[in-house]
């Protein structure tokens, strides 16, 4: 369950980062996608720890 949630958090965070960065350019889109993926994974794992355990 945690693995699936981590995957979903990473995908959604990366997509949001890409969407925000594409307005400026490709390089910023890639960077914000990586940052968004990391933040999405962190947030989902924190939420799972707080509410599912």
Q: Which regions have little confidence, pLDDT < 50, spanning 5+ residues?
A: none
CA-based gyration radius: 12 Å
Q: What structural class results from the helix and strand content?
A: mainly alpha
Per DSSP, what share of the residues sits in E-state strands of 2 or more residues? Answer: under 5%
Helix residue percentage? over 70%
Question: Mean pLDDT across all residues, rounded?
Answer: 95
Distance between the termini: 11 Å
Q: In sequence order, what are the helices and strands, one letter per element? A: HH
Main beta-sheet annotation: none
Number of helices: 2
- The number of strands is 0
Shape: elongated
Overall domain count? 1
What does this structure look like?
It is a single chain. The protein is mostly helical and 53 residues long. The chain has one domain. The chain is built from two helices and no strands. Helix 1 packs antiparallel against helix 2. The mean pLDDT is 95.
Strand-helix topology:
Layout: H1 2-21, H2 26-51
Helix pairs in contact: 1-2
Keywords:
53 residues, 87% helix, single chain, mainly alpha, 2 helices
Q: Can you summarize this structure?
A:
This protein has helices spanning 2-21, 26-51. With 53 residues, the protein is an all-alpha fold.
């Amino acid at each position: 369950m945690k693995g699936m949630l981590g995957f979903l958090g990473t995908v959604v965070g990366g997509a949001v980062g890409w969407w925000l960065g594409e307005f400026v350019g490709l390089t910023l889109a890639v960077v914000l996608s990586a940052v968004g993926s990391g933040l999405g994974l962190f947030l989902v794992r924190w939420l799972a720890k707080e509410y599912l355990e």
